Please model this.
Amino acid sequence: MKKKSKLPGLYLGFILALMYIPILLVIIYSFNESRISSVWGGWSLRWYRDLFRDRDIMEAMTNSLFLATVSSLSAAVIGTLAAVGMPKTNLRGKGIIEYLSTLPIMIPEIILGMVFLVYFSLIKLPFGMITLAVAHTSFCIPYVYMLVKARLVGIDKSYAEAAKDLGATEWNVFWDITLPLILPAITSGVLLAFAMSLDDVVISVFVTGVNTNTLPLKIYTQLKTGVTPKINALCTLMFVSTMLIVITSAWFARKSVSRTERRINSEEASGIGDSIGLVR
Model:
């Protein structure tokens, strides 16, 4: 019997350490008393108190959360409808359209930012939260579209066929069967789009207004004067909040899928039973 190699485990441990040790250090140094992040001055909640007293950061964080929420939800609606409706169309250039829909992921952000800047200038749209929302929604749509499309490929078509045999309409099939089954993919797409919007700096620099500031831009401008552990405290709160959201959404998605599959199986069994009774 061959002895299993420890190399894959060591490699995985190295990658995980490379990813999570910096996050752990950010969390630890958010409780640092010293103003200099590289110098440990003892445990303190000073920077958390200063964080909540900083109106500029609170305003920038509110703008970023609002922008990410609007962008991710808008992208979820558009991306889901595109993923569900595209396979049902008979367009000759459907493959090209699907390819073009993923271009915002592959195009460098600085190019997208310049394109949005020129476009908004041509249509004379005032720069601010509206231009930020339109730009962020545009580059967030492919994330939702690709995840939902991949999920639709893995769904058994017999579910929809059985529902139609039992008298369900296209809307009933989508609302009662397709939507619950693709809900985990939509949730994943929304969370990914939310994170991408919340993290964006390059595109936001081109399309933001004078009176509109987002959290990444605020942190970027503070690099000139030095970043205090107050930013570490902010990152810690955002990391904890993100983890809670991901865990909660995964739990609800698992419950939703299992509940939907049980309902479909029971409806199929009921339909088969009725058919057998009619034959007899």
Summary: Residues 131 and 207 are 6 Å apart (CA to CA). The first helix runs from residue 7 to 29. The two ends are 58 Å apart (CA to CA).
